[in-house]
Automatic annotation (TrEMBL):
The gene is aat. Functions in the N-end rule pathway of protein degradation where it conjugates Leu, Phe and, less efficiently, Met from aminoacyl-tRNAs to the N-termini of proteins containing an N-terminal arginine or lysine. Belongs to the L/F-transferase family. Pfam families: Leu_Phe_trans. It comes from the Bacteria. Keywords: Acyltransferase, Cytoplasm, Transferase. It comes from Magnetospirillum gryphiswaldense. This is Leucyl/phenylalanyl-tRNA--protein transferase. InterPro entries: Acyl_CoA_acyltransferase, Leu/Phe-tRNA_Trfase, Leu/Phe-tRNA_Trfase_C.
Length: 235
C-alpha cells in the first residue's frame, strides 16, 4: 500500500454510496498518509479495536466554505462571555483521545490506535494541529486536523461541556482565515456542522478545490486570535 501513484489501483466501490475504499491496511506511514490526503483520500478504521485501516474517498465531500461560515446567535453569547479558555497544540494526544472516547449514542469510533499514533507523529512534524477548550484546568472540548498548504482537513471534535467543541470550531475558522487558508475539509457533514454552513459537494469538484488550496501558502497561527475574525470575509 506504499504506492499511491495511481490510487485507483487499490480502490473499490463500497456498497455505501458515501465512500470508496481500498484493501485493509495494517501498517501505514506518515509519508503515505500525507500523500493520500493530497489526493483526497483519508483513512478510517471500522472500530477503535480494529487494527486495520481503510482508504475513504466519498462521492459527496463535506466542506465548510470559509467565506460563508455562520455562527449561531446562541453561540455568539457564549463566545462573548468567554466561558472557555482556548489553546492551540498544547494537548494534541488528549484531544485525539477525547475524540475517540465512547459517548451516548456512539459506543465506538473510527479512530484506532494507529491513527492516534500517526497523527501524533504528524503533530510533532508541525503538520497536524489541535484546538483545545478548557474550563479552568479541565479539557472540556476540542478538535484536531491536518494542515497542508492552504487546505485544512478537519478530522474530529469532541465536547464534554455545552458548546465546548463549537467554541473550538469558531476559533479554528478564525485562525484559518487569518492564516490564509482556502479550504476547510470536514469529510462528511453532520447536523452540528450544517448549522455553521457546512455543505456537500461532488468528488470531482472537491478535487479541484483541493488542488487549488494545496498550491497556496498558508500558516496555522500559534498565537491567540479574536473569534470575531471567523465572521470576516475569507481570503
Amino acid at each position: 500500500m506504499e504506492n499511491l501513484t495511481d490510487h485507483h489501483t487499490f480502490q473499490r466501490e463500497n456498497r455505501d454510496r458515501r465512500e470508496t475504499t481500498g484493501s485493509a491496511m495494517r501498517v501505514l506511514t506518515t509519508d503515505v498518509l500525507v500523500r493520500a490526503y493530497t489526493m483526497g483520500l483519508f483513512p478510517m478504521a471500522r472500530t477503535r479495536g480494529d487494527s486495520k485501516l481503510y482508504w475513504i474517498d466519498p462521492e459527496e465531500r463535506g466542506i465548510l466554505p470559509l467565506p460563508d461560515f455562520h455562527v449561531p446567535r446562541s453561540l455568539k453569547k457564549t463566545l462573548r462571555q468567554g466561558r472557555y479558555r482556548i489553546s492551540v497544540d498544547t494537548a494534541f494526544r488528549a484531544v485525539m483521545e477525547g475524540c475517540a472516547e465512547a459517548k451516548t449514542g456512539r459506543e465506538d469510533t473510527w479512530i484506532n490506535g494507529q491513527i492516534v499514533d500517526l497523527f501524533c507523529q504528524l503533530h510533532a512534524m508541525g503538520l497536524a494541529h489541535s484546538v483545545e477548550s478548557w474550563d479552568g484546568d479541565r479539557l472540556v472540548g476540542g478538535l484536531y486536523g491536518l494542515a497542508l498548504g492552504g487546505a485544512f482537513f478537519g478530522e474530529s471534535m469532541f465536547s464534554r461541556a455545552t458548546d465546548a467543541s463549537k467554541v473550538a470550531l469558531v476559533d479554528l475558522v478564525a485562525r484559518l482565515k487569518l492564516g490564509g487558508f482556502l479550504l476547510l475539509d470536514t469529510q462528511f457533514i453532520t447536523e452540528h456542522l450544517s448549522r455553521f454552513g457546512a455543505t456537500e459537494i461532488p468528488r470531482h469538484h472537491y478535487k479541484l478545490l483541493l488542488a487549488a488550496a494545496l498550491n497556496e501558502p498558508a500558516f496555522f497561527l500559534p498565537n491567540p486570535v479574536d473569534w470575531s475574525a471567523a465572521l470576516a470575509p475569507g481570503p
